[in-house]
Specification:
Layout (H helix, E strand, L loop, with lengths): L2 E9 L3 H14 L5 E8 L5 H8 L4 E5 L5 H9 L4 E7 L3 E3 L3 H11 L3 E9 L10 E2 L4 H9 L1 H4 L20 E2 L2 E2 L3 E5 H7 L11 H11 L3 E12 L3 H5 L4 H20 L4 H46 L9 H17 L10 H21 L7 H31 L11 E6 L3 H10 L6 E8 L13 E4 L3 H8 L3 E4 L6 H13 L3 E4 L22 E2 L7 H31 L3 E9 L5 E9 L12 H7 L3 E3 L18 E3 L12 H14 L2 H17 L1
Parallel strand pairs: 1-2, 1-4, 2-3, 6-11, 12-13, 12-15, 13-14, 15-16, 20-21
Antiparallel strand pairs: 4-10, 5-11, 6-10, 7-9, 8-11, 16-17, 18-19
Helix pairs in contact: 1-2, 7-8, 10-11, 11-12, 11-14, 12-13, 13-14, 18-19
């Protein structure tokens, strides 16, 4: 029996968004004779199980592989029974009247084959992609070059996004967004199904083009609207969605250029290749450009120093091998200072890194005088490199600041960070209401709950999961910044979040509140516009992490012979055995370690000798957090467990959990190699005295 409406949702790894979308769809179809279909494209986040449990009446298709958006929709289009069919993205929230208004629009306009509604971003801004013209060569050129943004009211320059129409004006358009598109069944019978050669992008443009070729009109109806969290499925995909975008552009040109444009196809293909080259080249330069620039400038600095010292470059070819060593030392110093990881790229940090590299390079000239430049060359090179490497970053920052001051963005979408909230409370809502236009620089992905009252607070953004699953959520959604609600995360969770964020190269910020004393921060003003707190520990610096790891390795190598002798004794002593156990690794996971035990209950000398091997592997540290049994339900302490540590120096059994958290936080905030050495010496003295 025919239904009035079939709703089709294609989902891929957006469980939290899908759940919210289905709730809103159910509410919107209450008074409509309808059916809801969900096609899961081989998600790994438990989406199918959630649909079966929470929405048993929804018709679910589960594909073994990700077959793409077009093919997944076609699977339902070939068997659904609705007289009208609506394609809906899983990262949308549907208003109660949306389906009804769109169905009435089709009924009132007999020549309309498809209709789309107004689509807004989570912050309420208008999404230009919900109504478009076809991407002809001129409109594409105007969009790429920014002419459409300079002249948004011009029909000549803004033919693609149709910005010369008011967002609240109903109009006939060339194309709609595939995130929400309602069509008649007769349209599908005439224009055919979606072209399955389009995997991720372009299928909506192609379909609309074929619908118009069959004589149907396509309408944009702003009387109702939906919210679209744009790009969530693409961001969760393991492949590069940019590649599929340009592949779809080329396929669209191949299908339609003869009927629409007189320009040779090879010229259009060349334009697409050039645009793709700029996009992929920009991504590659963004990742490696600074390192390449630094390597070139380091070479230039050494050449300039040789010329200043000797008056010519005759010595240059003779010192190429040692020159490579100098360059490598400086680049490694820059890396360990966090310059290339995005955490510490200021001019001052670069100068510090160059100075540290200079100290290492001068030691080369001391120990290998016959295979090195003169000390004067190294001194000159250090000064020149500090000026050049720090200088170009300073100039870049000044230029960016100048352009921002003039209201000009350096790159399309520059500075727009993918943000995830941890917890939710009134402080977060006040802060969001106070930041105003700064929200335009954020893509708010959603939030995670923490189990605390603040973490379960009702919020206008979707829940992506629990904090237990934070690592997967960050990886799947490509999160760049975490923003913490002040009362949503306990101290223990905070240590774990900071440690995880450091490993995944994610920045962490805290909404200001009046109660931050426990973290050693001055009490913040609770103004909505107050800036976010930057939450960093010494372990956010690659230099501190590398220095601590180097100390662990050196001490472990020094003690390794004694450990191997002790281990060999175990092999020949029948009463001794190696006992394995799983302990918490400090980051919410487990690690297996070994200790020596005796079967006759006698005391054992050096029972933790095998831990030296775990320290060499990087699983433990000489100085670290408490050694605790593995419990994946609990967070880690944000740093590796250790042979000794800030809590091991005291009787940890008499310390309250809050005291342990404060000790951990103090250590993370104030760590240095000197503190580690002091803790080790105290532990050794105590063992000898005891």
């Amino acid at each position: 029996m025919m239904k009035a409406l079939s709703v089709i949702v294609v989902s891929y790894n957006v469980k939290a968004f899908l759940e919210k979308a289905l709730v809103s769809i159910e509410e919107a179809v209450k008074t409509i004779d309808s059916e809801i279909w969900v096609v899961d494209n081989a998600s790994t986040d438990g989406s199918p199980a959630m649909v079966r449990k929470r929405f048993p009446h929804v018709k679910l298709l589960v594909n073994k592989d990700n077959v793409g958006f077009a093919r997944a929709n076609n699977q339902v289009l070939k068997q659904c029974s609705g007289r009208k069919i609506c394609l809906v993205n899983p990262d949308t929230l549907i208003r109660k009247d949306t389906f009804r208004v769109c169905m009435e629009c089709l009924d009132q306009h007999e020549q309309a084959g498809a209709v789309g509604c107004k689509i807004v971003n989570p912050d309420g801004s208008f999404q230009l992609s919900c109504r478009r013209g076809f991407p002809d060569p001129w409109s594409s050129f105007a969009k790429v070059t920014g002419l459409s943004r300079l002249f948004p009211k011009s029909r000549f320059f803004s033919g693609y996004n149709l910005t010369y129409y008011h967002p609240d004006t109903m109009t006939e358009v060339d194309s709609l967004s595939g995130s929400f598109m309602m069509v008649r069944r007769e349209v599908i019978e005439g224009a055919g199904f979606l072209d399955e050669r389009f995997f991720l992008y372009g299928e909506d443009l192609d379909w609309c083009c074929r619908i118009r070729q069959k004589g149907w009109k396509i309408l944009y109806c702003p009387e109702t609207q939906i919210i679209h969290y744009k790009g969530q499925s693409a961001s969760a995909a393991p492949f590069d969605s940019l590649w599929y975008f340009y592949k779809a552009m080329r396929l669209f040109v191949k299908k339609h250029h003869h009927s629409r444009w007189a320009i040779p196809r090879w010229l259009l293909d060349l334009g697409i290749f050039f645009r793709a080259f700029l996009s992929f080249g920009g991504k590659w330069l963004h990742r490696w450009g600074a390192l390449i620039a630094d390597a070139v400038l380091l070479q230039a600095g050494l050449v300039l120093s040789i010329w200043i010292r000797f008056g010519d470059l005759w010595y240059w070819p003779h010192y190429m091998p040692i020159n490579a060593a100098y360059t490598l030392v400086w680049l490694l110093s820059l890396f360990f200072m966090g310059v290339y990881t995005g955490r510490n790229g200021s001019a001052g940090s670069v100068v510090t890194a160059v100075f540290i590299g200079w100290l290492f390079n001068t030691s080369i000239t001391f120990f290998l005088p016959g295979a090195a430049f003169s000390r004067q060359v190294i001194l000159l090179a250090g000064a020149v490199d500090a000026c050049m490497l720090g200088g170009w970053r300073w100039l870049k920052q000044k230029q960016i600041s100048r352009l921002k001051g003039a209201g000009i963005s350096c790159l399309p979408g520059a500075g727009k960070q993918r943000v995830l909230f941890i917890g939710w409370d009134d402080n977060v809502e006040q802060w969001l209401n106070g930041v105003g236009k700064r929200k335009e620089k954020m893509t708010i992905l959603g939030r995670v709950t923490t189990g605390s009252p603040a973490g379960t607070h009702d919020a206008p953004i979707p829940v992506l999961g629990h904090i237990d699953d934070l690592e997967r959520i960050i990886s799947v959604h490509k999160v760049q910044k975490l923003i913490l609600a002040p009362r949503a995360v306990s101290g223990l969770w905070l240590h774990s979040v900071l440690g995880l964020a450091h490993r995944l190269n994610v920045s962490v910020r805290l909404i200001p509140s009046e109660n931050e004393r426990w973290m050693g921060l001055p009490a913040a003003e609770s103004r909505p516009e107050a800036p976010l707190r930057v939450l960093n520990t010494r372990f956010s610096s690659e230099f501190h992490v590398a220095a601590k790891r180097l100390m662990d390795i050196l001490i472990a190598l020094c003690t390794l012979p004694a450990v191997l002798i002790r281990m060999s004794v175990v092999l020949f002593d029948r009463n001794c055995c190696l006992f394995s156990s799983e302990i918490a690794d400090g980051f919410g996971h487990c690690v297996r370690v070994f200790i020596i035990k005796r079967n006759d209950q006698k005391s054992v000398r050096w029972p933790r000798a095998p831990w030296v091997l775990s320290i060499l592997k990087g699983e433990l540290s000489w100085v670290g957090s408490l050694v605790e049994p593995c419990c994946k339900a609990l967070p880690g302490r944000g740093y590796k467990p250790g042979w000794t540590g800030p809590n091991q120096q005291r009787n940890s059994e008499t310390l309250s959990p809050s005291d342990q958290e404060k000790n951990d936080w103090h250590y993370l905030q104030n760590h240095s190699i000197l503190i580690d050495v002091q803790l080790l010496i105290r532990c050794i003295i105590r063992r000898i005295a005891g």
